[in-house]
């Protein structure tokens, strides 16, 4: 069995590791699993607009995949967690549409499996999205 190799994304990943004692990604053989990637920048600041936060989360997925030796083309599964209003627990349609547009942009060659989940809150105050990703690469690449 392959030994797990852990990866920490420079910047926000290092802050998260130091503050919360977790890595951003693990690679075991040809499989890569990412911890939830948020839309914060390297100082853990969250953009004011939800669209900018979502775009940053997708960029953070890309940065973390690169650390582990993959790209969006290697992604076969993602789960997105969205903070929703307790009065209307559905994920807002414009938010889902924006995620779809970014998914088409980042993964034009295939449609990975995707689960979108509405939640009342995420780990840190102000966060509105978190993306968990699974990818596979040729062993040794």
Mean pLDDT: 94
CATH homologous group name: RutC-like
Radius of gyration: 15 Å
Could you state the order of secondary-structure elements as H and E?
Answer: EHEEEHEHEE
Sheet-strand content, in percent, reads: 25-35%
Which class of secondary structure composition applies to the elements?
Answer: alpha+beta
Overall 3D geometry?
globular
- Main β-sheet: number of strands, strand sense, barrel status? 7 strands, mixed
| Helix percent band | 25-40%
Which residue ranges are poorly predicted, with pLDDT under 50 across at least 5 consecutive positions?
none
Write down the CATH topology: 60s Ribosomal Protein L30, Chain: A
Q: Give the strand tally.
A: 7
Please tell me the total number of domains.
1
Number of helices: 3
CATH class: Alpha Beta
Intertermini distance: 17 Å
CATH architecture: 2-Layer Sandwich
């Amino acid at each position: 069995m392959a030994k797990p190799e852990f990866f920490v994304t420079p910047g926000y990943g290092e802050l998260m590791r130091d503050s919360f004692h977790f890595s951003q990604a693990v690679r075991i053989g040809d499989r890569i699993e990412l911890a939830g990637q948020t839309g914060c920048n390297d100082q853990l600041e969250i953009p004011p607009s939800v669209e900018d936060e979502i775009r940053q989360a997708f960029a953070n997925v890309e940065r973390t995949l690169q650390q582990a030796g993959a790209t969006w083309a290697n992604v076969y599964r993602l789960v997105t967690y969205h903070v929703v209003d307790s009065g209307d627990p559905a994920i807002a349609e414009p938010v889902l549409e924006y995620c779809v547009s970014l998914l088409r942009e980042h993964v034009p060659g295939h449609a990975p499996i995707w689960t979108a989940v509405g939640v009342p809150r995420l780990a840190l105050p102000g966060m509105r999205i978190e993306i968990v990703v699974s990818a596979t690469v040729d062993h040794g690449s």
